[in-house]
Write a structure and sequence with these properties.
- With 168 residues, this protein is mostly beta strands.
- 9% of the residues lie in helices and 29% in strands.
- It has 1 helix and 11 strands.
- The strands form 2 sheets. Strands 2, 5, 6, 7, 10 and 11 form a 6-stranded mixed β-sheet that branches. The protein has a 5-stranded antiparallel β-sheet with strand order 1-3-9-8-4, with helices on one face.
- A hairpin with a 2-residue loop joins strand 5 and strand 6.
- The longest helix has 15 residues.
């Protein structure tokens, strides 16, 4: 695939991140072991699907829950940078709006804001009907996660190379 010269390097990186994030939408879905009256959001590293809810600023996470999108549809981001609202759903981490890569009724892939502080954090998702769901995580400076071909953090890396920065 040849990318037009007017597309700068950052745009190519965002598009690649979106493609990778969209690819993990159909990864494993965590299951709750007990029924609960309180709806919660499970937060996982989008690359490894590590269930420890440890994330880093400016990285992609997968949030699982029962979300209410407009008309119960799937909404992928179609702009660079990604929007803060998709399908009338938004997310905030410690009160800071998070960029959304894709929103589905069962999963949201989002970018943890780069300005969020380290330590305990709360993700609040506002659904299209105005209801909210929340989940907690811990924000740390560094937590490795590699996107893999198996979409579970193990095995060979999901990677793309280029010899000239244009042709993939």
């Amino acid at each position: 695939m040849r990318v037009p010269a007017i597309v700068d390097g950052w745009t190519k990186r965002w598009v690649l991140l979106f493609v990778i994030a969209a690819g993990v939408v159909f990864g494993p879905t965590p299951r709750s072991s007990s029924a609960s009256a309180v709806q919660a959001v499970a937060i996982l590293n989008a690359a490894s699907f590590a269930a420890d809810a440890v994330v880093t600023p400016s990285t992609i996470v997968a949030a699982f829950g029962q979300f209410k999108t407009l008309n119960n549809q799937v909404y992928p981001a179609q702009t660079v940078p990604p929007p803060f609202v998709l399908g009338q759903v938004s997310a905030k981490v410690n009160g800071i709006a998070a960029a959304l890569l894709i929103v589905t009724p069962g999963q949201i892939n989002l970018i943890i804001p780069g300005t969020v502080g380290l330590g305990p954090a709360t993700l609040i998702v506002t659904n299209s009907d105005g209801s909210t769901l929340s989940g907690t995580c811990t924000v740390v400076q560094s937590q490795p996660g590699v996107f893999t071909a198996s979409s579970n953090g193990t095995g060979v890396a999901s990677a793309q190379t280029t010899f000239d920065g244009v042709v993939y």
